[in-house]
Amino acid sequence: MDNSTEGNFLRPGEIVMRNLFSDFTQQAEKKIELVMLESADKPLSKLLQRGEDQQFDQLLSALGNVAEHCLPSLLHTLLAWHRRQLSDAEIKNDLKRMEKSVNANKTLNSQELDFQLQRREAAVEFIFCLALIEILKQLPFHPGHEDLVRSIENLAFKHFKYKEGLQNNPNAHNIHMIADLYAEVIGVLAQSRFSSVRKRFMSELKELRTKEPSPHTTQSIISLLMGMKFFRVKMVPIEEFEASFQFMHECGQYFLELKDKDIKHALAGLFVEILVPVAAAVKNEVNVPCVKNFVELLYTQTLDASTKSKHRLALFPL
């Protein structure tokens, strides 16, 4: 194996990364093929989720470990793999393989074909997110790389956009599951690039708030809020803790202004998701002004609203 490029020898970490990534692509492609061949009734999560394949889990963990030493090149490689997997050429190759494997007498109608292609795309996204989650855990060791951060944010926030008529799509469950995985990606990303994630989220929210109120706008805002469900407040250092609560305060201001019951309930649910881990770990931090301000901001209205039957279930936990 030639481990040099353009006369420059690769660092040992790069060599390990290339070998690992080669294993990853082989295993991932087998999994994608399996998804296309399996019965449509078989949930995607059962085929791909963590804990179902110990060997693949170990491979993802190894990619995460090696990312400490070569994260930028590993992310570039993973993003390129993702683009290639969703390209027309790769889709056609997989379709040909699937047609050879299924009963030769059975041809898929256009609806079945579309469903299988959506399942394939969901499988690619699922595997991609699992790899991203592991790799991005090492992002704190690699300051900068705004281009990569932006690329990941773009992919994630695209999946937080509400899709009209999704409830009638047989792949709706998979689409929601991928959005949740991308939310997990954003949760990991925010641990080291919080200001970037916050800025992007607020920008998207601001844009949606300028739109005419409608069921579509309501659902779009709720979908965006759900994209932050894995955001977790960093308890240390104190500067990051305060920044997290400043963000919560901004969301709290929005909460107080809200007239739409469904969005209000969704945001209350998001606050609970974010605050429960804080409540479990908090000690002297409750005396930090930004925390007191946030609590004071929401307490009275939340307490009042939670006594009303239309809000009770959603707001009482908050």
TrEMBL record:
Residues 118-318 form the Cell morphogenesis protein N-terminal domain. Coiled coil: none annotated. One of its GO terms (cellular component) is site of polarized growth. GO terms for biological process: cell morphogenesis; neuron projection development. This is Cell morphogenesis. It comes from Musca domestica. The lineage of its organism: Eukaryota, Metazoa, Ecdysozoa, Arthropoda, Hexapoda.
